[in-house]
Amino acid sequence: MKPYPWKCATCRTQAVEPATIPAYVADLEHDGRKYQVVVENLDVLQCRHCGAIVLDDDASDRLSDSLRAAAGLLSPEQIRRHREGLGLTQKQLASLLRISESTLSRWETGGQIQQRCMDAFLRVVFESVEARSILGTALAG
Fold first, then answer.
1. Per the omega criterion (within 30 degrees of 0), is the bond before 5 cis?
2. One domain for residues 93 and 134
3. Are 30 and 113 in contact (CB under 8 A)?
4. In this predicted model, what pLDDT tens digit does every residue of 13-43 receive, in sequence order?
5. Domain residues for 80?
6. What's the maximum distance between 2 C-alpha atoms anywhere in the chain?
7. Residue 2 forms beta bridges with which residues?
8. Total number of domains in the chain
9. What's the pTM?
10. Omega of the bond leading into 76 within 30 degrees of 0 (cis)
11. Is 23 exposed, middle or buried (0-12, 13-18, 19+ CB in 10 A)?
12. DSSP H helical ranges for 1-128
């Protein structure tokens, strides 16, 4: 990896270095709604000349986690844990939900945030034997 400082894409100055923002605040939109998220001690790359911020994968993941929390959505770990608790493979749960296996995989790895309606549907499927039975019967028929 190239040593710091890096060239800033905004001001073109050689001044981008690692920094920690004590309280990063962002207004993020998800599923048609805006949420204000605050991430404490966020490690980023920041231009010391113009202040431009570059988010790496870890910072983006922390923002996504904060967005899920603000929106009241299941976390990737919760989705995986519930699925495993039911003894289902990703393929089986995806089939039950009528979604692609790759979509479920992205939800479980954090690569994609599920919509609020799908989050509610997941919760019903995870908590209700009757719902799973109805969905399973529909698959068989």
1. yes
2. yes
3. yes
4. 999 999 999 999 999 999 999 999 999 999 9
5. 76-140
6. 64
7. none
8. 2
9. 0.87
10. no
11. exposed
12. 57-71, 76-85, 90-97, 101-109, 116-127
